[in-house]
From TrEMBL, chains A, B:
Source species, domain of life: Bacteria
Domain Nitroreductase: 23-181
Protein name as annotated: Malonic semialdehyde reductase
Keyword terms of this UniProt record: Flavoprotein, FMN, NADP, Oxidoreductase
Known EC number: 1.1.1.298
Pfam families in UniProt: Nitroreductase
GO molecular function annotation: 3-hydroxypropionate dehydrogenase (NADP+) activity
């Protein structure tokens, strides 16, 4: 445990450790597989995370085939290639910039939000980026809730990935996440974090 | 419980409910206060959430004074004003676009990342937006871990908030979050979520 679990929280200490205190960005993995059932359980938990107007721009591509892995790895930054090639499962997380098409069905008490707020593409892109990132973070937490290490990466050719895996011009990759059980020596020593007083002010 | 807790996850069912399944975006709150100690416990848990290059752009302004509340509420969209005025505590979450100044101390094994990747402001802004949003999501989860409802909002005059609470031109508000114990009838019925097959594909 990196620091003592905090009993000012309601969440139990084991869950604090699992999701935050002992969870780390793994760089190496064992060969234990990650099943579709486990990813579905992750999704069915984290889909409830809050977003603006209940928009759900997040899209997830699970890379399972050797061919898919090859198409992915070639767009990764060199430093990310070995771990992306060897992780038991890799997920490409992207924002769908046309998420507004689903708003009437996903926000039934306010279906007019689609046209009132999201008729312009730049507004949608900005909203999909922010809310897709919130959903990406919920997904990372969910992967940890399933007992796996998540290794999120943003070092890649984003345009290349967008074209390679979506190709419709409507999706923007947010992160690529390696998923699996950490191997020995899976991580660097924990890097520092800013202190509370450096981040939080009160007015 | 909105759906059955999933035993394909390692996280226990009570924690699943607390963080996702029973957690909701509250619109009304009791007058039970939210202490600085509780927010510090939240921060000291969620600060461990992963970001690219261990960057930590998130800044949090806790609005506690009557004067601060007035300065905040005037920039909120009309529909958000009453709950922002009445929540026990409101947090303004913003991204610091000059986060790179802290990279050498926060990423001690790779201090040259600051100059290699973040010398250009537009790159920093884009990175701060994405990683600040990840941290905002971790914070929302942390508020729930402390037993409170979080009510994140993006309906406000962003430029007005940036000038009112930061004024240095270097911060971009990400969300405003009402925090407190939910009152009776604190929420609308749960809106739908996209099904797994609508979000996840496999290659």
């Amino acid at each position: 445990m990196t620091t003592a679990a905090n009993d000012a929280l309601v969440l139990d200490a084991a869950a604090q450790d699992l999701l935050f205190r002992e969870a780390r960005t793994a760089n190496t993995f064992t060969d234990e597989p990650v099943s579709d059932e486990q990813i579905q359980a992750v999704y069915d938990l984290v889909k409830y995370g809050p977003t603006a107007f209940n928009q759900q721009p997040l899209r997830i591509v699970l890379v399972r085939s050797a061919e898919g892995r090859e198409r992915l790895v070639k767009h990764m930054a060199d430093g990310n290639k070995p771990k992306t090639a060897s992780a038991p499962l890799v997920a490409i997380l992207a924002a769908d910039n046309e998420f507004h098409e689903e708003l009437p069905s996903q926000l039934p008490h306010f279906p007019q939000a689609k046209d009132m707020f999201f008729s312009e593409r730049p507004v949608r892109e900005s909203s999909a980026q922010l809310n897709g990132a919130l959903q990406a973070a919920y997904f990372i937490i969910g992967v940890r809730a399933a007992g796996f290490a998540a290794g999120p990466m943003t070092g890649y050719d984003a345009d290349g990935l967008n074209k390679e895996f979506f190709g419709d011009g409507d999706h923007s990759v947010l992160a690529v996440v390696n998923i699996g059980k950490p191997a020995e020596d899976a991580w660097f020593p924990r890097s520092p974090r800013l202190a509370y007083d450096e981040v939080v002010t009160t007015v």
